[in-house]
Amino acid sequence: MSLSMDKLSVLYHDGLHSIQALDEVSIELKPGACLALIGESGSGKTTLGHACLGLLPQNASVEGRISLNGQQIDYSDETSLNQLRWNRLAMVFQNGAANFNPVYRIINQVAEPLIQRADIGQAEAMLIAAQALSELGLNHDECNRFPHQLSGGQIQRALLAMALILDPEVLILDEPTSGLDAVTKTIVADVIQKARSGNKTVLLITHDLEFAVHNSDTITMLYLGQIMETLPAEDLLTSPLHPFTLALSRSYPAMSTARDLGGIRGDAFYRTVHQHGRQEGEAYRHSHIQSPGSGHESSHAPPTGCLFQNRCTQALDRCRTEPVALELIGDHQVRCLRHGIVSILDLKQVEKSYGDVVALRPTDLTIKAGEVFSIVGETGSGKTTLAMTAAGAFKPDNGTRVFDGHDMDEWIRRDYKSLARQIGVIYQSPAESISHRFTVLEAVAEPLKIHGLCRNSEERLERVIRVLAHVHLSTDKAFLGRYPHELNMGALQRVSMARALILNPSLLIADEPTSSLDPSVQAKVLKLLLDLQIELGLSMLFVTHDIGLARKISDRLGVMLQGRLIEFGPASLVIDKPLHPYTRLLIDSVSGLSRKSFNSGSSRVEPGGCPFEHRCTRAKDVCKKKNPQMLERDHRSVACHFPWDRPR
Amino acid sequence: MTDSATHSAPRRLGLIITFGLAALAMIYLSYSLPRLLPGDFVTAMYSSSHVTLTAEQEAELRAYYTEEPGFGRYLVKLASLDWGYSYAFLTPVSALFFGALPWTLLLLGTAHVISMFVGFVTGVEAAWRRDSHLERSMVGGMTVLEGVPEISTGVILLVVFALHLGWFPAAGAETAYAEVSLLARLADVGHHLALPLATLVLAYFPGNFLLTRNSMVMVIKQSYITTARAKGLPARRIRYAHAARNALLPLVTRFGLRLAFMITGALVVERIHSYPGLGTLLYNAIQARDLPVIQAVVLASSLMVLTIILGLEMIYRIIDPRIEHAH
C-alpha cells in the first residue's frame, strides 16, 4: 500500500504565535519500501507521524493532503478515520512505557484492538495476542505483567506487537530504537524487514542514523519542518549533499567514523508565525525563527531564505533572503541555493618546483565547505608546499586554483588582501611565527592593522579580546602585554590561532600546528581548534605527519607521497580499508605492525613510474613505466595500478 | 508473579497489625477524651430543671454519674458488647445508636453515592470538552458552589422550600404515628429526605466534579490516550476505560475519607433539618454530657475511619497495580 503526503503543512496555534511544525512536506512511500525520516528534535518528525493518523491536538491546523493508495484521507470524518486507524495505519509511538495504560496488563492492551475493532471474542483475542507477543519474544509470564514491570526492550516489543496486531498496511515507527541496546535493535530491524517483505509500507522516524542506513532505502532529512534533502540511504554517511545532512551525520557516533563527535554549530530554533491582529490573510502574517524561550525579543528577520542558513557553513548573504526550493541533483533532492555542499577550495593539477627539486607533482585537492581535510605524509612529501599553495602564499608553476568559486590567481592579482582575509594560517612553529618584539596584543592585532580594519584602538582591543576569549586565553592587561618568550608553547600556539582567526576567515590552514606540543597540551589545543571549527563553521586544511592524529580530527584524509596525493577519501575508509599500498605501510608503521611486506629503500623516484614502485611488493612492470592515474573506487580516489581490492 | 505474592503477604500482615494498634489507641481516646469535657451530667440535667436538689442529693448523684469504671472494665464491657445505659434517655446505648444509624446511613450514603457518581460523570465529560464554553462555565460555577458551606445551603433550602413554599417538611425523617402502606411510607421517607439530601449533594458534588475534571485533564494529556485514539477505539471506551479509569484514584480517596467522616459530616445538616441520625444523637448527648452515648458514637466513628482507610488500602491495589509494586 502506498502512503503519500502532498504539501503537508502543520501549524500549532498558541494565541497570536503559531509554531510551524511542518512546511509543505511531500513524501511518497511505495509498498514494500521503508522511508526514514531524520531530523533533530523539534524538526516535526513526530508531528508528521501523528498527522497521518489524525492524532494532532486541536490547536493544530493542517494543510495539504495525505493519501492512502491514492485516496485522500478525510480527517474531519471521525467514523471513517477510526476505520482506518490501526486497521490500515498503525504506529509505534516513542517513549516506550508511557504509551501503555498503566492500569491494564500488557496482553489486554495488545488484544484490545482485536476485541473492539475486529469483533473477536475475548478468549480468542487473548490467544492471538499471546501468540503475537511470543513471536516477538515475550513469554506468557511477561505478557501478563503491567507496563511498569517490563524493561525498555520488552516494552518496545510489546508496542511492535500491538501495532501489528490488526495486520496494518502502513507501519509508522517513531523512534523505535531510542534507548535500546544494539541487540534489541535487531528485533526492530527484523520487524521492519518482515513488514517490507510482506509488502507493507514502513515510515521510520528516527535519529539513529546507522539504523536508518541499514533498514531503509530512502532517507528524508527534516529541518524545522522542511525537507532539506532526500537521498538514497547508503549515501547518508558517505556522500550527503546538503550541509545539514553532513553536519548531522558528523554529530552521530557511527561505528564507521573515526573523527570525534562534531555537533552542529549554533542552536536549533522554533519557527513561529506571527499573526498581527486577528485578521486572516498573508498581509498580516510573517514568520521568523527564534530560539526556544526567547519570547518576543527575537529578531524579526523574516526567513524567506534558507532555514538552515544561520547554522550553515557555506551560507551567503543571499541565502538569508532568497527562497529556495527542492531540486534534483543526481538521485538526491536538495534544498540549497548553492546546489549542495560546495568546494571552498579547488586545486587542479597544481605543480611546484624549487629549482630542480620537484616539490609538487600535478595534484588535485578539493576542500568542501565545513569539512576538515587532513594531509598526511612523510617529511619532504610536499605537504607544506601544497598547503602554502592552497593558502595563496606560493604561486604554483602550473595548474588552476579556485577559491569559493573565483579564480584565485586572478583574485591575487586584483586584490590580494581581500583573499588573504578569507584564509587564516597557523604555522608549524608558533615561536618562530610570532615576532619576539611583539606583545600578544600587537601580534594578534597585526592582521587588523595590515588590512586597515578597526582603526580605532579601543575597537581593535575589543576585537582582540573577543578572539582571545575564543581560544580560551586570558584577556587581562598583563597578558596582553606579554612577549612570546614569556609564554609556554600551548599558550603561544593559541596566540597564533587567535591571530589566524581575527579576520574571520572561512578557510583555516593549519600546518603541523601541534607538532611542537607535548601530548596533553596538544590534546587541549586540538580540542579547542575543532570546537572553533564547528562553532565558527570553518573549513580546515590540516597538515600533519601523524596519521593517528589525522584520524581523530578529519572528515576526509589525503595521503601524500613524493609531491602527489596518492589516496584520499573519508578518513574512516582510508584508515580502515586503505587501498594504496603506501597508505597501508603508513598505518602499519603507526600501529607497530610488521613491515615485512614492504621493501625498504631510498625515496628516489624513477621518472615516469609510480613513486612507490621500488618499495611496493605488488609492483609489476607497468608500475615502473607509468605513473598511475587517479581511480575512483569505494567512495574515494586512489592513484595505484593495483589497489587493494579486498581490504584487510 | 510469584515475586509480588511473596512480597505482599508480610506487608499485608504488617498493615493489619498497624491498624490494630491504631484501633486500640482509638478505644483509649474514646474512653478518656469525653471525660475531659467541662461540666457533668448532673449539672447539665438539673441546672435547667424545676427539681431542686439538696446538697446531699447532688453529691450522691454526682458520685454515681462520675464514677470511674477504669479503662480495664471499659475494655471488658466493650468486648462483651455491653455499651451501658444512657444517662439521659435511660435506654441501652446500643438501642439509641442502632436507632439513629440507619437514618445517617440512608442520608449520608445516598448523598455520597449520588454526588460521587454525578460529579464523576460530569467531571469526565467536562474534561473531555476542555476549553469549550460549557466546560469553562461549569468549572466556574462549581468553584463558587464549592465555596458555599453546607450550613448556608441547608438554611437557604430550608427557608425557601420548607418554610416559604412549604413543599417539603422542615424536620424529621418520617411522619410520626402514620399507619400506611409500605409504598406510602417509602414516599414519606423520601419526602423527608429530600432537603437534607439536596443540601449534602450540593455540598459534596462540586468538589467531586472539580477533582475528577482536574485529574482527567492531566490524564488526557498522557501518551496512552493518544495510543488509544490511534487504535481507533470508540470514543466512550477511550473516555471511560482508558482515561477515567486512571483519574479514579483521587476520587476514591476522597470518597473514602468523606464516608469515614460521615458522622461529623452529618452533624450540621442533621441539626439544621432536625434529622434523627447519629449527628443529632451526638449533639444531644454532648449537650446532656451523656457520657456513655458520647463514648459510643466517638468510638464507632473513629473505628469506621480506620476500617474505611484499611479498605481503601485494599481497593487502591486493585485500581492501580503500580501501588502493589511500589517500594
Describe this structure in words.
The complex is a heterodimer of chains A (648) and B (327). Chain A has 648 residues and is an alpha/beta fold. Chain A folds into four domains: 1-88 and 169-269 and 306-332, 3-Layer(aba) Sandwich (Rossmann fold); 98-167, no CATH class; 342-422 and 505-587 and 631-648, P-loop containing nucleotide triphosphate hydrolases (Rossmann fold); 437-504, no CATH class. In chain A, the strands form four sheets. Chain A has an eight-stranded mixed β-sheet, with helices on both faces. Chain A has an eight-stranded mixed β-sheet with strand order 20-21-22-17-23-24-26-25, with helices on both faces. In chain A, helix 18 links the parallel strand 21 (507-511) and strand 22 (539-544). The longest helix of chain A is centred in the last third of the chain and has 18 residues, at 519-536. The two termini of chain A are 43 Å apart. Chain B has 327 residues and is mainly alpha-helical. Chain B has a single domain (2-37, 83-324), classed as MetI-like (MetI-like fold). Chain B is 76% helix and 0% strand. Chain B has helices at residues 2-32, 41-46, 55-65, 71-79, 93-128, 133-147, 150-164, 182-220, 223-230, 235-260, 262-272, 278-287, 291-319, 321-324. In chain B, helix 5 (93-128) packs across helix 12 and helix 8 packs across helix 10. Mean pLDDT of chain B is 81; it is low at 1-6. Classes of the chains: A alpha/beta (648), B mainly alpha (327). Chain A binds chain B through residues 50, 53, 55, 58, 78, 81-87, 90-91, 93, 95, 98-103, 112-113, 116-117, 141, 144-146, 148-149, 162, and chain B through 1, 131, 222-224, 226-235, 237, 242, 245-246, 319-322, 325.
Write the layout of secondary structure elements.
The complex is a heterodimer of chains A (648) and B (327).
Chain A: E1 3-14, E2 17-29, E3 34-39, H1 45-52, E4 60-68, E5 71-72, H2 78-84, E6 89-92, H3 106-117, H4 122-135, H5 140-143, H6 152-164, E7 170-174, H7 182-197, E8 201-206, H8 209-215, E9 218-223, E10 226-232, H9 243-251, E11 270-275, E12 285-290, H10 317-321, E13 327-329, E14 332-334, E15 343-354, E16 357-368, E17 372-377, H11 383-391, E18 398-403, E19 406-407, H12 408-420, E20 423-426, H13 430-433, H14 440-450, H15 457-470, H16 477-480, H17 489-501, E21 507-511, H18 519-536, E22 539-544, H19 547-553, E23 556-561, E24 564-570, H20 571-576, H21 581-590, H22 621-625, E25 630-633, E26 636-639
Parallel strand pairs in A: 3-8, 3-9, 6-7, 7-8, 17-22, 17-23, 20-21, 21-22
Antiparallel strand pairs in A: 1-2, 1-4, 2-11, 4-5, 9-10, 10-14, 11-12, 13-14, 15-16, 15-18, 18-19, 23-24, 24-26, 25-26
Helix pairs in contact in A: 3-4, 3-6, 4-6, 6-7, 14-15, 14-17, 15-17, 17-18
Chain B: H1 2-32, H2 41-46, H3 55-65, H4 71-79, H5 93-128, H6 133-147, H7 150-164, H8 182-220, H9 223-230, H10 235-260, H11 262-272, H12 278-287, H13 291-319, H14 321-324
Helix pairs in contact in B: 1-13, 5-8, 5-10, 5-11, 5-12, 5-13, 6-8, 7-8, 8-10, 9-10, 10-13, 11-12, 12-13
